[in-house]
Amino acid sequence: MSPLDFLVLIGSMVGIAVYGMWRTRGRQNLTAYLKGDPNVGWAAIGISVMATQASAITFISTPGQGYQDGLGFVQNYFGMPLALIIIAAVFLPMYRRSNVYTAYEFLGHRFDTKTRLLGAALFLLQRGLAAGITIYAPAIILSTVFGWRLDLTIILSGLLVIIYTVSGGSEAVTLTQKYQLAVIFGGMVTAFVVLLARLPSNLSLTDALTVAGGFNKLHAVDFSLNVKQRYTFWSGLLGGLFLSLSYFGTDQSQVQRYISGASLRESRLGLMFNAVFKIPMQFFILLLGVLVFVFYQFERPPVFFNETAWNLQAKHDPGERLRSLKQEFAAIHAEKEQLIHNWLDARHAGDRKAEAEAHAQAQAALDRSEAVRADVKTALLAADPHAKTNDSDYVFITFILDHLPHGVIGLLVAAFFAAALSSKAAELNALGSTTTIDFYRHIIKRDASDAHYVTASKWFTLLWGLVALAFALFANLVENLIQAVNIIGSVFYGVVLALFLVAFFLRWVGGTAIFWAALAAQTLVFVLYFSLSISYLWYNFIGCAACVLFSVLIQTALGPTNPPAKALAIS
Amino acid sequence: MTPLDDKATGLPWFKTWRDVYIFVFVSFAIWVGLLVALTVTFS
Question: What's the CA dihedral at A331, A332, A335, A338 to 10 degrees?
Fold first, then answer.
């Protein structure tokens, strides 16, 4: 990175943080600190919800996913619009009517204290672990590529977000997210425009899409019922609906973003903004990756995108295996490029037979180049059994460094950090709020002043920030950490969602029944997790279904309970 | 929160929340349709 890139990166990140702190300085009102500006409108809410969900990994890894597997991943988001409609119509009015600070406080109103604390504890456990990953995941990629010290990257970016989140609370989070998302979109749109400009001059957009489609990168929707297929319309619709209901409807890091609206209207429109724009946004990011793939059909890519790992092993390559694979890859690439030109020329000439032949030959060449890449990964693993051979996370950052001008590089790296900080800030804010409201104010110190709780919330936010930093610093000691955190999330999410679904839809089920049902369902999930070998995503459904079923059975055995307060009933 | 706040959207074309939800659903359906068209056209 050049000095100009560093100027853009540090200037934008520190500038936004300082602005957020300055605008929210001296806030001592608990509602403003935990819920944010009471006059916030739907656009700010919508942006805040979007910025919270979109972490740095969304913008670093998703183009790599597009490059590797095409557009199919977009199906993962198909359940989200439906989930957001359900949340806007059912969850949101309940939260606002009961005037809560946290989603788990609502459980206390609807059921009892023990259920509220159970929900809050499950959230703290799950989100507290994930908070370290939000900082670690982009830091490991960026420090590897740029040669920065990993610990310093984690500490500096972590401290920056802790300082402004502790200082300004929810209002600072929402305010900074607005500008951070502007940096993110500015960076991604600039990358898109530069990428289009860097494609060969004789290649039209239709040609680019033909190449992408011919190599199976534009297979966006798959209606097959094959459960082994990772991304299909049905798994995206059903699984996505379920996961989005859990995440947007019950995770405090999201709930805190939209319950703060000036009115129910503003909060609802903020959610609908996401329901309309999330799929196009993910499509755009994946398409960026697909176009990077097309670009690299005409410009030779590295044989392995994590060049730091490659160079490390290439130094100790006694049999020169890696060098010979690199040469073989270069030769196949040159042949493939010529075959793609033949394919497009035949297409332009309207010669269907020649087009089909050239396409088949280009596909065979692509298969051979992928086989060489597989051999490279095998060779890297043979040299170092702990080597990370999945290089798709490095595709987009490699393209940025090798082919974008200085200044734009700084803007893109700023976009990645902006995404990391915006989601991290919302997580810390939610962890601090839940600890203060559901544990400290409810159990330890009732009836203190607003100023006291604001101070307590700041300390808890700082504490969680330091926990996340420590977790991020030692994250590399744990094998396959991101997957581990996803598994933890899936193991708990189902039961948490069930607590809220029963609260909203089964009014005759009381606190004792749902509490014991949740414990029984969580135990069942643990037992199944350690005894079955099914995909961990299924535990979301199993935990939820079991908890709902158990609560009905236990309540039936216990007999009728008092109905909940009228204010909490669905009207 | 007033009953008016609950029912009025304040939007020019969508007077009720039901209209807004239908619009969101139709937008989703259009996106799926466009993605299917992209899949079919370039496969």
Answer: -110
Chain A contact present for B42, CB below 8 A? yes
Share of chain A above pLDDT 90, in %: 40
pLDDT confidence of residue A517 = 96
DSSP A17-42: HHHHHHHTTT---HHHHHH--TT--H
Neighbour count for residue A315 (Cβ, 10 Å): 8
Q: d(Cα A172, Cα A376) in Å, to the nearest integer?
A: 47
Please say whether the dihedral angle defined by the alpha carbons of residues A385, A386, A392 and A397, taken in this order, is positive or negative.
negative
- The string of pLDDT tens digits covering residues A226-250 is 766 778 888 888 878 888 898 899 9
pLDDT at A385: 79
Beta strand extents in chain B (DSSP E only): none
The Cα A35–Cα A29 span in angstroms is 10
* Higher pLDDT, residue A121 or A307: A121
* Confidence at A374, pLDDT banded by 50, 70, 90: very high
Among A306, A290, A369, CA closest to A146: A306
Of B10, B25, B43, the CB nearest to A218: B43
pLDDT at site A107: 94
Alpha carbon distances (Å) from A387 to A316, A321, A391, A395, B36 = 14, 16, 11, 17, 38
The whole-angstrom separation of Cα A89 and Cα A93 is 7
Strands (E), A186-280: none
The identity of residue A432, as a single letter, is G
Contact status, residue A210 vs residue A341, Cβ threshold 8 Å:
no
Would the pLDDT of A351 be above 80?
yes
Q: Are A126 and A492 in contact (CB under 8 A)?
A: yes
Q: What stretch of H or E contains A239?
A: helix A233-250
Q: What pLDDT band is residue B3 in, cutting at 50, 70 and 90?
A: very low
Q: What is the predicted pLDDT for the residue at A570? A: 46
Going by C-alpha positions, the residue among A101, A91, A266, A262 that lies closest to residue A169 is A101
- Which residue among A209, A264, A276 sits closest to B1, beta carbon to beta carbon? A264
Alpha helices in A24-149 (DSSP H): 30-35, 42-53, 56-69, 80-86, 92-97, 103-110, 113-146
Contact between A157 and A142 under an 8 Å Cβ cutoff? The reply is no
* Tokens 């936010």 belong to residue: A461
Tell me the C-alpha distance between A542 and B11, whole Å: 40
Q: Which of residues 1-40 of B touch A (CB under 8 A)?
A: 1, 5-6, 8-10, 17, 20-21, 24-25, 27-28, 31-32, 35-36, 38-39
Number of H helices and E strands in chain B, helices first, is 2, 0
Quick: pLDDT tens for A7-56. Answer: 888 888 888 888 878 887 777 777 777 777 778 889 999 998 998 888 88
Query: Which residue stretches of A474-560 are H helix?
Result: 481-505, 511-531, 538-558
